Amino acid sequence: MTDQSPLLSVKDLHAWYDESHVLHGVNLEVARGETVTILGRNGVGKTSTLRAIMGIMRKRIGDIHFDGQDLMRLPLHHTARTGIGYVPEERGIFATLTVEENLILPPVVSKNGMSVAEIYDLFPNLLERRTSAGTKLSGGEQQMLAMARMLRTGAQMLILDEPTEGLAPVIVQRIGEVLQTLKQRGMTILLVEQNFRFASKIADRFYLMEHGAVTTGFDVADLPDRMDMLHEVLGV
Amino acid sequence: MTMIFGIPLQAFLGQLLVGLINGSFYAMLSLGLAIIFGLLRVINFAHGAQYMMGAFAGFLLLSWLGINYWFALILGPVIVGLSGAVVERFALSRLYKLDHLYGLLFTFGLALVIEGGFRYFYGSSGQPYATPALLSGGVNLGFMYMPIYRGWVVVASLVVCIGTWLLIEKTKLGSYLRAATENPVLVQSFGINVPLLLTLTYALGAGLAALAGILAAPIYQVSPLMGSNLIIVVFAIVVVGGMGSIMGAIVTGYMLGILEGLTKVFYPEASNIVIFVIMAIVLLVRPAGLFGRDA
Ligand SMILES: Nc1ncnc2c1ncn2[C@@H]1O[C@H](COP(=O)(O)OP(=O)(O)O)[C@@H](O)[C@H]1O
Ligand SMILES: [Mg+2]
Questions:
Q1: Tens of pLDDT along B32-41?
Q2: What's the gap in Å between A212 CA and the centre of ligand 1?
Q3: Number of domains chain B contains
Q4: Model ipTM value
Q5: For ligand 1, atom 6, which residue shows the shortest CA distance?
């Protein structure tokens, strides 16, 4: 494999909730070190795409390769070991675990992860609250924790589902700073965002999803030309 | 003669001890049920049969292989735990996708098969199991005579309950277990082998039941139906404590054991039903149980 091959490639991905067919042939690629944002209205299948990539959604067909490995063949608990860190939309902080237990829960998958000390440097709030129950944290702190626990694993790629949803502007800004820092360190990021202004500051590339499929993709440089179209499709 | 609430002190303390011993078994058994229910969402009707298998493991290890009580205390739970692992892996795990009722029906059927099998070979009467020499005899506490073995059961049960609680609340494995109880799919997506965790949990629950069974053997004898008599009461206790609450199961087990013992002193007619009366009241007033988080 050459270096130009994408880290993540998804081809003609279909997926179902029981009988309900929600993904209709999703195609996307993410190169090593790139930050890619998926845009799209509510209900178009952004979350489902991420869940199908992780293997949380099992009823799926198509082709998903990550770092040369065929993700379609792996049981759910093997996906993370290929180096993907998933930060779900609902954040998934555990109430019966302390902040620190939440932080160290996901197994380490490579040596490139941050130490707990480095993570507490990056997120001082978590250090202060380390013995509290996970869900006693504010929404913003829970989002930080959901991201932080994936940084410790040494994942090569982060998948984040609407990390700024419902958060105050100052916290959105803080999350933006953290993602910038990660990006500078060479982290590959696949981000689902409704917050267009936030996404435009960190993304290298965008995909637009409509009705369960990716309908167009473009670089951040082409953003100004696409503004009118995006306003119309996204209704912002 | 010293009296307390119009009852001779000796009778009072005697029943308190009986209650505490029953409570020790209730606590160990409801603890295992609560752990299994918490993670697997299965109401393990085979729990009584696994308790009985533990007692029989002790009995058979001794009569066939001459393996004594102390080794049986370790070997028995391991054997029954392994059999639990096999049951989970090859049968129970196939039912998780269906309604929870199927898990209950399956374990209920399994209990009938196991108990029927043992009854076929050993009949319904009890086999005696001698108290180990080290723990035979008794001590005079001044107000009453206490068999040493009964004191040992209380201590062993406390150690088992606290040990299991620590395992779940304070270790890494316990944090996997707690997290998977909340959201198994997310925990598995983190790279943790949740199917294996489910197997281990069922084995742990079955092993705890077996341990209680061996502890019970010298007191109650070893009989194929010893578990089915007990398990109905234990289910009532789990309902009172709140399904899935570990600490709730332990505390409620001891509490209701003692309450049952004291009822024997003050109003013997009600001693067989007091736990069920409490269960009915709790179900009406607080359906999630005394320690349950929510419904
Ligand atoms: N658990 C589920 N069961 C059934 N349908 C679902 C489930 N989750 C989402 N859907 C449906 O799948 C479609 C895509 O949803 P989703 O991927 O969450 O969209 P988005 O993240 O873009 O808002 C929607 O029509 C939604 O109603
Ligand atoms: Mg979504």
A1: 999 999 888 8
A2: 10
A3: 1
A4: 0.93
A5: A17
